[in-house]
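Async update (no meeting this week)

Hi team, since we skipped the sync, here's where things stand on the single-chain job. The sequence we agreed to prioritize is pasted below, unchanged from the tracker. I ran it this morning and attached the output directly underneath so nobody has to dig for it. Comments welcome in thread, and please keep replies under the output.
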Amino acid sequence: MQEKFSRILIGNVLKSIRTEKKIPIKKVAQNMDVSEATISQFETGKNRPTNEKIALFTEICGQTFNFDLDRNLIIDRVYDIYDFYTDLKKEELNETIKIVKDTHNIACSYARFEYYLILYMDAIINQKEVDTALYKGIIELGKNNFSVRELSIYYDIMALEKIYSNEIKEALGYLDKALSNKGNHLMINYHYCSIYLDLGYFNLAQQYIHKSLKMAVQQLSFDRLYYLLLNQGVLYMYTCRHDEANELFLKLLNESIKRQNEIMKYCILSNLVFTSLIQKDIKSGFDYLNRIDEQFTDDLDLRMYKCLLYYFDHEYTKSKECIASFLRDVKNSKYHENFIRALKYMMDNKPMKAIANFETCYQIALKNGQYDRAIFVLKQLNELYLDHGLQNKLKKVKEFERM
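Output:
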């Protein structure tokens, strides 16, 4: 069994190197003075080439094969990187990735596919603007050599890529694949709860939050635990348990200040601004907004919240200035643009145009699977429908809120 596995691995490595370099099988066969059928047998794992033939094959492809590299060491690196990602240990994660990248001739070794899996993890976890198609194309040629844990990690990272691109259905499909490969890992459950929370499937979200919290405590993954508690607070917020949400957010805020975690602090304060808007608590909304670090103040949601806070506070001049600035800058978000235009129409006493823009926002949020934005827009529409006697539309709002 080990010999068969070795032959298949070597064949997959050789084939992926040749196809990446776009070298015809005929050219390799001619230079090695063997038949094309022999090369095909090497690449499919039917025959195992000698080390000399492997070296010659890769030399023809412009590579030097690294026979000394311990593949198991790189497999362990894959697990380490994923664990660092789980525990939010970014410094250790990136240091381990750098060690792998600096390894001599790793792309031309038995650890070729682990190497490209690590490159893929680096690109997605660190959200680098690189074309991941090459990485995935090479991984696909050799994923049959992965352990079940490597496969579950691969599918989870694919799910994460789809989450970032807001392709939720595809993300769930990859999470299911990750889970089917004995992938009962904390991050897979964390991704499930985040998706179901955004989609408004609160019972499912709560199940995965509870499961993930238990796993985080067992694994002593305390930094990830705080983000799970943040999700719990968001769930309270979405289900109108505002006092519980605020109590949890404030506890987490104190913890983020102690830990000097600016990203977590920003996430918590942003949610506190959001709950303040829902409750029309203008003073608290401004207080929380003013506590957010300047590096995050260009966030479109925060800028939108600021316009709304001025509007709710009847500071119409400041609100109009805020709106004008927003419309000058926003380019790539139809949701935010329509929301701010709706607010502008409300201030210009053009309620029907405001309703039309809010309804567009609602459709965009639904299409993108963003329940939080959809329900927030509905709260604005609810008031407009009430004020203007649109009872049929008001009924639809109430039906949605009971879902």
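Quick observations from my side:
The CA atoms of residues 287 and 395 lie 35 Å apart.
Residues 397-401 have pLDDT under 50 and may be disordered.
Reply here if anything looks off.
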